[in-house]
Amino acid sequence: QAQLVESGGGLVQAGDxxxxxxxxxxxxxxxxxxxxxxxxxxxxxxxxxxxAGTNALVTYYADSVNGRFVISxxxxxxxxxxxxxxxxxxxxxxxxxxxxxGASTATIRSGDGLSWGPGVQVTVSS
Length: 126
Fold this sequence. Notes:
1 helix; mainly beta; 5% helix
């Protein structure tokens, strides 16, 4: 059973919004930094956003999504979210929830040694 499971993906038009959710089924990553990556067809994985474990006000974003995406978490429900607004066709990708016990936001951004969810498809039509 996957420990991190994403949901909320789908097919939308440019300019629309989507909210992705990630459930940490065992509560392992409560208090740890978590984040989102994405992989577009034919491209390498790309860091999207991360949120600190001890202070949810500490967040970092890729330049490509800064100002349009917002990452948040609800540890009481073992949930991580990614609110995506003003979506563009270039946002089309499989989005992955990532985490690692005790990780810092720098570790999340590096992508090293992380646990990954199975991913959820986001498709933005022009």
